[in-house]
Each structure stands twice: as C-alpha cells, then as structure tokens.
C-alpha cells in the first residue's frame, strides 16, 4: 500500500541478509559481493543503489551467493510481486527504508534448496516467505537466516503464496482488530481494487460481512464492478457516487458500516467517514491521493467516530512470530476453501522487470505484476 | 465549547420543563405562559423564538411560574454563565437544539425554594444545577422536575457552582478516559484559555500532569501566559510557536504528550497531532476554527496516532446519574482543596444581558460572562 509523507528509517532489518552484501553489515567470512558482470553469474537480482524513479534506479545485476552458515537457508525464489510499497520504498517514500544498495521486493515465495546444520524449522522442498519486509525478494536465489523466513503450505497456488504475507494479512487484521463485527454487518472501503481491497472483499464475504466498495470512475467501470462482485463485493460505487444521495438506498438493505478502510485520504476519506454508523471506526492504511485525512469536527464529536491507523509492520513488532504464523494459516484456510484467491496477476520473467515496473506504476492498474524466476 | 457543522435535533429534553411553556409539551393543568408584559411579572427569562444572532433574537420576557407538582422543585436561579455552546445553540449550530420558543442557557446554579410532596432528593436551601443541557437557565425562577436537577454542595464558590456542570466535567473526563496517564506525563491542548482549557490546566496540575498550552497570539500574550502559568500551566505557546523547531526544546524536559485535546480544528489540529508521542490520542471536543481536522496519513499509520471525539452529553447518556453525581463530587474535592477555581468571570445582572451576550462573542474573550439574578 502506498503511504505519503514522513519517513522513518528502518532500525533493524528482519534478519541478517546474506544474499546481498550492502556497503557494510555482512557477517561471517563468506560475505557475498555483487558486480555488473560476475563470471560465472550464479545469482541475478534487481538492485538499486539510490532512491529515485524505479524505472531508472533499478538494475538487473549478477551476484555471488553467500555460503550457507549453520543457521542459514538457501532459497530458490519462485515468484515475487511488485507492490505499491516496493515502489515507494525504492522512491524513498516509505516508513521502512533499507540500507543501500539493496535488492528490491519485500514479498514473494521461494523453495528451500538447502539448510544449515542448525536449521530445524524448514527443510529442502518447503515453501517459505519473508517474515518481515526488507529482505529483497526480487532475485533468483539467496541465502537467508532461518529467522528471516516463515514456512507456508506448498499446496496453495503459487500466486497466492507469493502475495500472502502482506495484503491479505493487512485485510484480515483490519477486519478483526478494530470493531467487533458480526455476520450481516457492513464494511466500507476505498481503493477496493487494490491488493488489500480485493482481499478485504473476499475475507469479508467469507466472514458473512457485506462490503461497500468505492473505486475511482474509469472507462471500464462495469467490467471492474463485475469482477469485484464476482469476488464477493455487495456494492461497488464510484468516488462520485459516494457523494450522491442515492447512497442512502444502499442502507435500506444493509446496516450502515461500523468499519471503514481508507487507503486514499483527502476527500475520499471525508466521504468514508460520512457513511459510518455512530461510534464507527475508520482505519487508514494508505494515502494514495497524497492528501491528508480531512475529518468533520462535528461527526467526530457528535457521532463519536474514531480514526485509527494500521501498519502490518507495527503489528508484527507487537506480536510474536507464532502469532504471525497463525495468521498465515488462517488465511491459508480461506485459500483451501476457495474463499481467497490471489489478485489478478500478470507473471513477468525477472529479466523483463522494466516492463513489469512500468506496468505496476500505471494508473488504474487492475493486474498485479509478479516476477517469476 | 463551539462546534461547527451537522446538527442533530434534541430527541428528549433532560426532563419536562415547567417554567416555560413552549408551543406544546407542557404537562398538567398548571402550565405557565409567557408574555412581553405580564402583570404582575413574577419571573423574568431570556427567551428566543427562532435561531439567529443572539443579540437580535434573545429577549427579556416576563413569564408566569408553573405550579409546583408532586415531583417538582421550585428553584430560584442564582447565577448562570454564557457559554460558547449556549451561543451556538441559539444560532442553531449545535448538536442539541430545543423546541422553540426556548429559554437560553444550559448551565447555572439555583437554590431550592420549595419542593413537591414526592421530592426526596433535594430540600429548600439546597443548591442545584441542571442534570442535562436544554433546561434554560437564564431566568430568575423556574419550576423543574426533580429528575432534571442534581444537587451540588453549597459551600463552594457561587461562580464555581455555576460553571461546574459542563467545562470541568469535560476536562476531567478527557484527561481520564482516553489514555492511561501517570504523574509526570504531559498533555497538549489548544484553546487553552477557554473554560475547558483552564479546567484542564488546573485538573492536570492536580493530577501531576504537565500541560503544554497552545493559545492564539494576541497583544497581551505575556499577561495571558502569566495567568495560565499561575493556574498551573507548564508551558504556554502560541499557534505560531507550535510550528517552530524550538518546540523540541520543551521535550528535553518533559515527555512527548500521549494526549492532545483539540477544540480548534484546522491547522491547529494538524500541529497538535505532530507533537503527539507514538500511539497517542487526540481528542476533539470543539471546532472553533470552523475548519475540519486535517491529519497526516503517515502519522496515523506509522505513529499509530488515534483520533477520537468527546461530547459530555453523550457521556451522560452512556452513564448513570449516580456516575455523573460522582464526577461532580470529584470535581468539588478539587475545588475544596483549592486546586480548581472558576474561570475568570464577569458578573452581569440579568437585565444587562445584551452587554453580556456581546462580550461573550468578542474574540479573545478572557472573562466568562455570568448572569446573576
């Protein structure tokens, strides 16, 4: 998800990264190095040396692989998405920024090839995803410390595994942690076609919640509406439609929402608040409009509306790895039951990353770019 | 406190009002009536028949007094303040609006003259204040139902009793109900010279909390600063000063606030949020700037800031009369210990109400107008 404004520098990465050796910080004697023309090339990675336009600063480089230490895991990456937060991190506009140079990508799924002698949690053949952001997933292979990885079932679709660790987790936690919702209750969200938005629609439907999904108007709005309704959306309205009195008709059939999920900010957030039931909560997890939240004083006072924020990285800091694992397994249950699918994806081979980066930054993107290795 | 924007019509008044008979709704055979020239005049009251500029729509009228029914209390009003919320209610810009015509004023203290045969809670000589807004306190005498009144100790200063039921209650609840503060913690607020603001300074100081008090710049700023510091303010800064880097110096001596109290909105609210410690809460209870709250998306997400609202009327709906009585007694303890005084007041006889109304609506009012009967 995209987030504007102030940036907090990453204090500690998820775990030591051994696949890429940045300017400093590699441990042990077998540190790797990267070069534009290693011979023979063993690992390829999308690397950026400074923040800026991803199309300009990201380069495909050959790297040497670090030796596998006792607590390390050698992983062959299978697929890794390009998320808005990856783009923002490269641009330098994100709450976590890695030391440079860095390998791009914070999500993805890999298969374990080999493990160090002290590794007990995973074995060759297992599928793993990053336990935290900052790992650098846009590469063919890497050696990570065991604690930087978390196992996922290998019987779920590859695209689901590659996109499991951020957006569906964010969607589920926002639905569960702010209001005590019951089946039949409603939820309103904007940016409903985003990765989080699509996960919200599906998970909410699986929980018996009715979603009101706000999207930007566009030429193929009916196609988008149909697609979101196929996912389980109860209502799909445009930002403009949200401001029309006809919205009241929706609430003849379903209750006013006690939860609003805001990834846009600006006017869109003002309108989401207007739709909330008294005592309801708006949770902000992104600011795609690059504008602040604008909230009516009288609604906050007289309707007791609450404004909160959600950031999965903070949730993970505040919870144990076992709790994160439990969250992932809950989501895999939805996947196994056919209730949660990956967002519409376009798989692009790693070497065609320029095309994938450009496609991911176009407005009205309806297809997530997934790099395959 | 002043509140802009949407208005919710009062569903039920605090209790039947017998002193003034509006267009309908009086019970019993002894309903009162009002006229511009009753003969002989027994009761005088400040009445408005429609919403508008208080200086134009409020009139001093003579009224007849209702008979005292079994559950009624005959009260001689002693003193009643002119609060911003009274002005907004007359203007029609408030969350509760009485049926018209109505007697102005929502706060004040009166002395019981006589009680009906079923009244057990108060006796002649007792001091009483309204249990809820909407009672109409700007009058010399009235007959109220017992349930519309609440007793207060008669050994506190008259001005304290007349201003006890709204602002200090709001200040105390906001300090207690949103963040678990400990002695040494800090609180930041704007509109610090308001009735609530002055109560916040004093109650916070009594609780060992350090207040950072934001005020609008003005010619006599040093005089105001001295006055607020005499009340217990730790720091007094102007709105402009709040935006200067020197603010950081304050936080070398005291911790960043986990609680911000916002009665202004607009840019002032944006700045209050910037000063909050991670995880902190901004509670909005007014919107003097007549502008919405503008909140940085990244602060809400990455610093987990929370935005809430507080409205004493809602708190009272959600709590019992005994809980309100307990709150008043807690505040009276502060008063008895010399830790809570009434805001600077100017006492004005009821017949000079025009002067008092005008003074209460001037910018930079540093003295609360109190009507005496």
UniProtKB/TrEMBL annotation, chains A, B:
Which SMART domains does the UniProt entry name for this protein? PKS_ER
One GO biological-process annotation of the entry reads: fatty acid biosynthetic process
Q: Which domain of life is it from?
A: Eukaryota
Return any one Pfam family short name: ADH_N
Q: What is this protein called?
A: Enoyl-[acyl-carrier-protein] reductase, mitochondrial
What the record says about family reads:
Belongs to the zinc-containing alcohol dehydrogenase family. Quinone oxidoreductase subfamily.
Q: CDD domains, alphabetically?
A: ETR
Job of this protein: Catalyzes the NADPH-dependent reduction of trans-2-enoyl thioesters in mitochondrial fatty acid synthesis (fatty acid synthesis type II). Fatty acid chain elongation in mitochondria uses acyl carrier protein (ACP) as an acyl group carrier, but the enzyme accepts both ACP and CoA thioesters as substrates in vitro. Displays a preference for medium-chain over short- and long-chain substrates. May provide the octanoyl chain used for lipoic acid biosynthesis, regulating protein lipoylation and mitochondrial respiratory activity particularly in Purkinje cells.
- Give the principal location in a single coarse category: mitochondrion
Tell me where in this chain the Enoyl reductase (ER) domain is found: 52-371
Q: Which residues cross the membrane?
A: none
- Enumerate the catalysed reactions: (2E)-decenoyl-[ACP] + NADPH + H(+) = decanoyl-[ACP] + NADP(+); (2E)-hexenoyl-[ACP] + NADPH + H(+) = hexanoyl-[ACP] + NADP(+); (2E)-octenoyl-[ACP] + NADPH + H(+) = octanoyl-[ACP] + NADP(+); (2E)-tetradecenoyl-[ACP] + NADPH + H(+) = tetradecanoyl-[ACP] + NADP(+)
In terms of SUPFAM superfamilies, this protein maps to: GroES-like (SSF50129), NAD(P)-binding Rossmann-fold domains (SSF51735)
Q: Which InterPro entries match?
A: ADH-like_C (IPR013149), ADH-like_N (IPR013154), ER (IPR020843), GroES-like_sf (IPR011032), Mito_Enoyl-ACP_Reductase (IPR051034), NAD(P)-bd_dom_sf (IPR036291)
Cell compartments where the protein resides: Mitochondrion
Lineage in the entry? Eukaryota, Metazoa, Chordata, Craniata, Vertebrata
Alphabetic keyword roster: Fatty acid biosynthesis, Fatty acid metabolism, Lipid biosynthesis, Lipid metabolism, Mitochondrion, NADP, Oxidoreductase, Transit peptide
């Amino acid at each position: 998800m995209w987030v504007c404004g102030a940036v907090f520098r990453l204090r500690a990465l998820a775990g030591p990264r051994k696949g890429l050796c940045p300017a400093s910080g590699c441990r042990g004697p077998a540190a790797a190095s990267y070069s534009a023309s290693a011979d023979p090339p063993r690992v390829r990675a999308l690397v950026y040396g400074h923040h800026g336009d991803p199309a300009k600063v990201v380069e495909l480089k050959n790297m040497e692989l670090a030796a596998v230490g006792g607590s390390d895991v050698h992983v062959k990456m299978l697929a890794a998405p390009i998320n808005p937060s990856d783009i923002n991190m490269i641009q330098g506009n994100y709450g976590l920024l890695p030391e440079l140079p860095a390998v791009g990508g914070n999500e993805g799924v890999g298969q374990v090839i080999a493990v160090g002698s002290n590794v007990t949690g995973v074995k060759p053949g297992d599928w793993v995803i990053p336990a935290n952001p900052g790992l650098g997933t846009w590469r063919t292979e890497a050696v990570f410390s065991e604690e930087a990885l978390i196992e996922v079932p290998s019987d779920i679709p590859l695209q689901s595994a590659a996109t499991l660790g951020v957006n569906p987790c964010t969607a589920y936690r926002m639905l569960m942690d702010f209001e005590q919702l019951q089946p039949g209750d409603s939820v309103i969200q904007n940016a409903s076609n985003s990765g989080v938005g699509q996960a919200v629609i599906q998970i909410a439907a699986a929980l018996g919640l009715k979603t009101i999904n706000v999207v930007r108007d566009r030429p193929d709005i009916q196609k988008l509406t149909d697609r979101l309704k196929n996912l389980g959306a109860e209502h799909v309205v445009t930002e403009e439609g949200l401001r029309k009195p006809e919205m009241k008709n929706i609430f003849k059939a379903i209750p006013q929402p006690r939860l609003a999920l805001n990834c846009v900010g600006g006017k869109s957030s003002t309108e989401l608040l207007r739709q909330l039931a008294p005592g309801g909560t708006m949770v902000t997890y992104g600011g795609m409009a690059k504008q602040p939240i604008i909230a009516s004083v009288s609604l906050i006072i007289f309707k007791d509306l609450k404004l909160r924020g959600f950031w999965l990285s903070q949730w993970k800091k505040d919870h144990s790895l076992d709790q994160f694992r439990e969250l992932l397994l809950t989501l895999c249950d939805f996947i196994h039951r056919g209730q949660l699918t990956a967002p519409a994806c376009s798989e692009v081979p790693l070497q065609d990353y320029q095309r994938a980066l450009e496609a991911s930054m176009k407005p009205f993107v309806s297809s997530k770019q997934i790099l395959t290795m």
